[in-house]
What we know:
Layout (H helix, E strand, L loop, with lengths): L3 H9 L1 H8 L4 H10 L2 H10 L2 H10 L2 H9 L3 H9 L3 H10 L2 H11 L16 E2 L5 H10 L7 E5 L5 E6 H5 L1
Parallel strand pairs: 1-2
Antiparallel strand pairs: 2-3
Helix pairs in contact: 1-2, 2-4, 3-4, 3-5, 4-6, 6-8, 7-9
Amino acid sequence: MLGPVAMRFVEAYPADAARVLEPADPGIVADVLSGAPAPAGAALLRAMLPDAAAQTLGMLPAAAAAGPVSHLPAELAAPLLLRLGRAERAALTKALPARASARLSMALRFPSGSVGSLIDPDVVTVRPETTVAEAVEVARRAPEALRKYLYVLDEDQRLAGVVDARDCVL
């Protein structure tokens, strides 16, 4: 377990901490990760080389790994989980909050290195008949999922088009 000064360093400088921790024994890195707040742990995982990050996740119980993984976008978390064994991956996916698990399960359906594995399914969607005012309200309720576009889905849940979110706001 890190002291408060070292933990502040990990939180403030995750890239530097990753460079220091990557060559260390994965058990030590796992201790650091399990003692870090989930957002700081996610920043550390993001800054680490994927093999080192996955090895560290593999040393943690699923419940401890779920915190930082839930703060990673699916396109970054999926390659890490694909480096884990099938049983470890399933346990970790199950330990994640429902929304993060659903996002990650979508990305894990596709082989590593494919475009499908890079999909971010956590986007703001609307129907073609949604008014601009309603679309702005939908976007306002989901700021973490709002990107440049609002995705328009037809009645069969297929992509009908995209709308620039800025156009809706203006």
